[in-house]
Amino acid sequence: MKVNFYTSQREYQEKKAEFDKAIENVLKDGISTLGKEVADLEKSIMEFTSAKYAVGVASGTDALVLASDILGFKNGSEVITSPFTFLASTSCIARHGGQPVFVDIDEETFNIDAAKIEDAVTDKTVGIVPIHLFCQMADMDSIMDIAARHNLKVLEDAAEAFGMSWKGKGSKYKHAGTIGDYGIYSFFPTKTLGAYGDGGMIVTNDEGLYKLAKSYRVHGATEKYHYDYIGYNSRLDTIQAAILLVKMKYMREAITKREVIANWYFDRLKDCQGLRFPKIKGEQHPVYYVFNILAENRDGLVEHLKKNQVQYSIYYPLPLHLQKCFSYLGYKKGDFPVSERVCTEIAALPIYPEITEDEVDFVCHTIRNFYK
Ligand SMILES: *Cc1c(COP(=O)(O)O)cnc(C)c1O
């Protein structure tokens, strides 16, 4: 049995009429940038996340770059983050000459180890970029405490975290991306809220930061052809927004489905020799954007999966402190042992709302056979 890591084709077949109609409406309205659907999606996301403001941009990466620029992550200022993540979480700091300062991750959550952040703070530190990775949020209580003590800006990379929320020691759950100064989401196709191309969004509860993000999205203009800042051309495409509005109608269902699938995996693999699983820490609602295992002889296992036509993904094979593009930061092998070890053990199994129980059975059967 061939098992796709991800495909949008089943979703499209199920909701073809709605997707086709949504796209047709945009085309009928005539050519537009920042069309009505973009504003409608921003509103829909504000309602879903309880963020006060939302600004649709061209990608999650752009969202991080705009936010970093506005927050002053540049010109030698130091920003603390973790090296076990997608490139864009750190390249946004380096883009304008900010200095990424890494601290290692928690070995059970893969998120930044909040207990190690304060040791990395210097008089040049201006911010923290926590990443809410795979299925759960970083320890936002500790991060916000440290930020308050040292007067740091917090940019939440919630690219993967749509639908996740954090209660921690607070009185109510807060959606990922709405706790720090800015939060960002990615609409890359595989993400929980994925488009059929690129897209992203910046959210904030601060009116001033909202106005800046809105202006930076269109070249730093405050009114047509009047530029207060040197900004970007980074608009969320209207057709992608129309597609995402259809997907928002089914968001709760899609999140629940991901949880059901994660439980299929847990049930079938929990007693499998050779495997360990990440742990959810802190009072929070996880969302299974990715289902990861930590595997003994990971490379042998994925070779076996490949032979049996089970697609998988490795997030991430090499931590950022060892990437060639960041060699100028001067880090070396051994600096972040947890990140480095997880890179050799981790593997992501197929999970998306339309995957079937038979397919999950086959994936689990294939894995159990390998460890027999
Ligand atoms: C996907 C992702 C991004 C980048 O989003 P794009 O929309 O692909 O540009 C940034 N950070 C993390 C952690 C991601 O997973």
From TrEMBL:
SUPFAM superfamilies membership: PLP-dependent transferases
Which Gene3D superfamilies does the UniProt record give? Answer: Aspartate Aminotransferase, domain 1 (3.90.1150.10), Type I PLP-dependent aspartate aminotransferase-like (Major domain) (3.40.640.10)
One of the entry's Gene Ontology molecular-function terms is: transaminase activity
Sites bearing N6-(pyridoxal phosphate)lysine, chain numbering: 191
**Active site residues per record:** 191
UniProt-listed InterPro entries? DegT/StrS_aminotransferase, PyrdxlP-dep_Trfase, PyrdxlP-dep_Trfase_major, PyrdxlP-dep_Trfase_small
Key words, A-Z: Aminotransferase, Pyridoxal phosphate, Transferase
Gene Ontology terms: biological process: polysaccharide biosynthetic process
State its Enzyme Commission number(s).
2.6.1.98
Write down the superkingdom of origin: Bacteria
Family, according to the entry, reads as follows:
Belongs to the DegT/DnrJ/EryC1 family.
Please state what the protein is called: UDP-2-acetamido-2-deoxy-3-oxo-D-glucuronate aminotransferase
- Organism of origin is Oxobacter pfennigii
